[in-house]
Amino acid sequence: MTIHTENTLVGRKIGMTQVWNKDGDVQPVTVIKVGPCKVVQVKAKDGKDGYAAIQLGFEELTAKNGGKGDARLNKPMMGHFKKHGGQAFRVLRECRTDGKKGAPEAGAVLKVDIFANTKKVDVIGVTKGRGFSGCMKRHKFQGGRATHGSKNHREPGAIGVNQSGHPIIKGKRMPGRFGFVQRTTRNLDVVKVEVEHDLIYVKGPVAGPKTGLVLVRAVE
């Protein structure tokens, strides 16, 4: 199985719905608005960057100074976009390539039609953030006794070891931030591609909330 990173587009998760397949069965699908994405910059392995990659711009900004509302660009980003064509984007993502001929060139606009003949894709997103959570919610701990005078209902219990000083082993499952991590859902079936609306339908759920940013990567 070969994953071509140059066949990757940025999109936003619209939400979930259901469609009927040819056998009349209902399939849960996730709808993603993919592209259009412009290739802002192409990096070469033999260049100053030392690796081959393309930068994709998603959701063009057209207001004064390259931004609008709460999406204003800082001066370094404004200078970067000015150096590479002058067109600013709200989202900028970089995808590695193999550096061979046939990769998109700078200024090219990639649309969802590149997935028209693709059967499976990987979707990379960031899970929903649940905030600071305890061990029972974060790690599915059972919890302590609820009766007979026990006061250890939702506490993690002993976290040290039976030695002097009670050191805590690195990686111990503890309360902390739950969610808001990058996750890749692999080998999702492509159910339908609507080129006229820049939409792709993939079977099953993907990581992230509605309107969350995702990367859709073709798999062969």
Structure report:
Helix content is 6%, strand content 43%. By secondary structure, the chain is mainly beta. It folds into two domains: 175 residues, Elongation Factor Tu (Ef-tu), domain 3 (Beta Barrel); 27 residues, no CATH class. The chain has a six-stranded antiparallel β-barrel. Strands 5-4-3-6 form a four-stranded antiparallel sheet, covered by helices on one side. A two-stranded antiparallel sheet has the order 8-9. A hairpin with a 4-residue loop joins strand 10 and strand 11. It is extended, with a radius of gyration of 23 Å. About 3% of the residues have low confidence.
Please describe the structure with a list of short key phrases separated by commas or semicolons.
single chain; 220 residues; mainly beta; Elongation Factor Tu (Ef-tu), domain 3; four-stranded antiparallel beta sheet
Q: Brief description of this entry?
A:
With 220 residues, this protein is mainly beta. It has two helices and twelve strands.
